[in-house]
Amino acid sequence: MNERCFEDLVISLLPGLRLTERIVLLQVFDSVDKLFVQSKRDIELILNRELQYFWDITEIIEKAGRIDTICKMKSIKWVSWTDDEYPPLLRECYDPPAVIFYRGILPNPEKSLLGMVGTRKPSPQAAEQAYKIAGNLSRLGVSVVSGLALGIDAMAHRGNLVSGSPAYAVLGSGIDEIYPASNKPLAKRILDSGGAIISEYPPGFPPAKWTFPARNRIIAALSRSVLIVEAPHKSGALITASFALEQGKDLWVASAGVEEGSYDRLGTIKLANDGAEVIHSACDVLEKWNVDASCEHSHEGLTSTGELISSMADFLKIDI
After folding, report:
1. 128: three-class secondary structure by DSSP
2. Which residues contact 257 (CB under 8 A, 6 or more apart)?
3. Angle at which helices 3-12 and 19-28 cross, to 10°
4. Using CA atoms in the order 80, 85, 90, 95, what is the torsion angle rounded to 10 degrees?
5. Helix, strand, or coil here: 101?
6. What is the pTM of this model?
7. What does the alpha-carbon distance between residue 207 and residue 179 come to, in Å, rounded to a whole number?
8. How do beta strands 99-104 and 196-199 pair?
9. What is the pLDDT at residue 101?
10. 234-245 b/e with 16+ CB inside 10 Å = b?
11. Which of 86, 150, 254, 271 is deepest in the core (most CB within 10 A)?
């Protein structure tokens, strides 16, 4: 690890700063020594505002050292905003994290990702459609990025894994704090696929209510387009939708998410009524991207019955 990388890690840990202010400091300072000698007033002049309190830089440097050691022990890698390996689409969003931690291999910036999210308690129809769309995209070489949550996220990841395409998950906790714990096997499969588990939070950071909405901006940023499969009127998936629109991404809803029925789909129905296009299949996605692909069974789907039954059984928690 070079001095510049460590400097960026230190800045990412400074308390009391906005995300955009950390990026400003990354641009101003290129060594720990230069940051070390700054006074509170120096930093305030750079940020153009008063700070409520100031940090003990020695303490922050020690904390960064401990995190670096833990990352090495747990095979966790990290990359900063100033590094060439930092995902380009993430760098372009309004408030990118100064540092991201990850296991696996970061997405190829030359390949488009579909963000796919939805409710943690989906209808069987929506769960099936999420699985099929992700599975068929995987067969056609397109990877999905989601949040490793229960419900739609998990079904999207499982579908994406059926054909060996790398899958990607963004966490609302540290890389070593998989939540929910029941998705640890799924996280391992994602890593085995050649994909990655990504987080802006250092190892040991527990999940919290506010971390999940925050991670949704990263899902949107990494994606070329975002598909909300099914969402009730109060759903974290709608936060992802808002980030997608703010970032200028295509926002779509799945057809299962706008059907009439006993499930609360008011969130996706409203998105559709507000102008979000309705997606029925993986081939719809590729057509929107102007990608030429063979889609003879666009609405039936290409996933095998056995794969789908196995994944739906896991979703429904039944024995087969």
Report:
1. helix
2. 118, 126, 228, 229, 230, 231, 265, 268, 269, 272
3. 150
4. 20
5. strand
6. 0.91
7. 7
8. antiparallel
9. 97
10. ebbbbbbbebbb
11. 254
Token pair belonging to 24? 């400003």
- Pairing between strand 168-170 and 99-104? unpaired
Name the token pair of 56. Answer: 């003990």
- Strands of the 277-279 sheet, one edge to the other: 77-80, 99-104, 196-199, 168-170, 143-146, 113-117, 225-228, 250-254, 277-279
* Euclidean distance between CA atoms 211 and 201, whole angstroms: 9
Q: pLDDT tens, position by position, for the chain (320 residues)?
A: 556 788 899 999 999 999 999 999 999 988 778 888 899 999 999 999 999 989 998 999 999 999 999 999 999 999 999 999 999 999 999 999 999 999 999 999 999 999 999 999 999 999 999 999 999 999 999 999 999 999 999 999 999 998 888 999 999 999 999 999 999 999 999 999 999 999 999 999 999 999 999 999 999 999 999 999 999 998 899 999 999 999 999 999 999 999 988 899 999 999 999 999 999 999 999 999 998 766 644 444 545 545 554 555 465 553 32
DSSP for residue 76: -
Dist CA 56 CA 40 (whole Å): 10
Tokens 């990354």 -> residue:
26
| Burial environment of residue 181 by CB neighbours within 10 A (0 to 12, 13 to 18, 19 or more) | exposed
In angstroms and rounded to an integer, the radius of gyration of the C-alpha atoms of the chain is 21
Q: Which residues contact 90 (CB under 8 A, 6 or more apart)?
A: 96, 97, 100, 218, 221, 222
> Is the Cβ–Cβ distance between 23 and 92 less than 8 Å?
no
- From first CA to last CA, the distance across the chain in angstroms is 49
Gap between the Cα atoms of 43 and 29, Å rounded: 11
